[in-house]
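Run log // design_07
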């Protein structure tokens, strides 16, 4: 097979892989959509993606009502209640630590 003919499909595949959105970018976007300031959302997304599995991130994404509600209007108790409903203590710990740490950091 001719090398240029082989390289073109491989290059297209590589470019399409680069075009996919990273889990961190998706988490950051969802946090911003929920009303969290972009710098804090970026910090939280980085920490959450490093500490949670993809399965846990998907479970967190399904958190009822957060997609339509600005988290700035939620009490800490309400947020903790919703996180605990996922029945995964690691998710609760990671999200709260990321939120507190990133909010303090700026």
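design_07 sequence
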């Amino acid at each position: 097979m001719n090398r240029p003919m082989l390289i073109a499909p491989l290059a297209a595949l590589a470019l399409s892989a680069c075009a996919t959105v990273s889990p961190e970018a998706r988490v950051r976007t969802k946090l911003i959509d929920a009303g969290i300031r972009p710098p804090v959302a970026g910090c939280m997304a980085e920490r959450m993606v490093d500490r949670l599995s993809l399965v846990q991130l998907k479970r967190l994404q399904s958190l009822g009502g957060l997609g339509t509600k600005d988290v700035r209007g939620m009490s800490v108790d309400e947020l903790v209640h919703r996180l605990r409903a996922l029945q995964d203590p690691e998710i609760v710990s990671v999200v709260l630590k990321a939120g507190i740490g990133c909010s303090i950091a700026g």
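The chain has one domain: 22-105.
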